[in-house]
Amino acid sequence: MTDSSALSAVPAGTRDGVLRFYFGPMDCGKSTLALQMNYNHRRQGRRGLVLTKHDRSGGPQVTSRIGLDSEAIEVVDDLDLVALVRAHQPIDYVICDEACFYTVAQIEQLADLADDFGVDVYAFGLASDFRSQMFPAAQRLFELADEISRLQVEVLCWCGRPGHLNARVVGGRLVRTGEQVVIGDTGDDPIRYQVLCRRHHRSGDLGTSSRSLALLESS
């Protein structure tokens, strides 16, 4: 490592990087905020990388439901994030979308980037899976992040209460068993996800019959 390396260990007295975690359920605007943050930093002349894993598009990009998108680097399980940033030096910040799907070791590497190299890290992702249990990577981010923010774009359950939990729906029914990570969206695919409030996530009520009755009454 040379003296001119932007990723040489940060000398004493210089600024530390920051590790921030932004979380929320599906549809709350995590990817939109990630793209906006990347735009803002680049506009100020900062150099950064955009990372993702299991984006809804199925490709190496960050996409949002309001139509914004950006090319990104796909994070695979054996990717060393410190080595990745060193290979792209100089780097001021890293945007990490879908960070809940990273490995715990990669979350440790994000902390290393902030602490040892002064890189600002902005991670975005779900906190919990379809069973309402925390993703291991999200749990580690809660433990390590300097700042943790629940996104304030409110997502509503079908009943009108705030929705904080992601239900996996297969064949029209909420399921509670299966692989922790199964890629889907909030549309009408055979495997899809629906945001519910705590009450209806626990009861398994997707609100389908209630909505159908309302449609009949209004017709």
Q: Would you tell me the structural class of the helices and strands?
A: alpha/beta
Kindly, what is the distance between the CA atoms of the first and last residues, rounded to a whole number of angstroms?
A: 71 Å
- Which percent range describes the beta-strand content? 15-25%
* Total helical elements: 6
Strand order of the largest sheet: 5-2-6-7-1-8
Low-confidence stretches: 1-6, 210-219
Helical percent range?
Answer: 25-40%
Could you describe the largest sheet, including whether it forms a barrel? Answer: 6 strands, parallel
Q: Tell me the total number of β-strands.
A: 11
Mean pLDDT equals: 84
**Helix and strand string, N-terminal first?**
EHEEEEHEHEHEEEEHH
Description of the structure:
Helix 3 packs parallel to helix 4. The N terminus and C terminus are likely disordered. Helix content is 28%, strand content 21%. A hairpin with a 2-residue loop joins strand 9 and strand 10. It is an alpha/beta fold and 219 residues long.
Which helices and strands occur, and which strands form pairs?
Layout: E1 19-23, H1 30-43, E2 48-52, E3 61-63, E4 69-71, E5 73-74, H2 81-87, E6 93-96, H3 104-117, E7 120-125, H4 136-144, E8 147-150, E9 165-170, E10 173-175, E11 191-196, H5 198-203, H6 208-218
Parallel strand pairs: 1-7, 1-8, 2-5, 2-6, 6-7
Antiparallel strand pairs: 3-4, 9-10, 9-11
Helix pairs in contact: 3-4
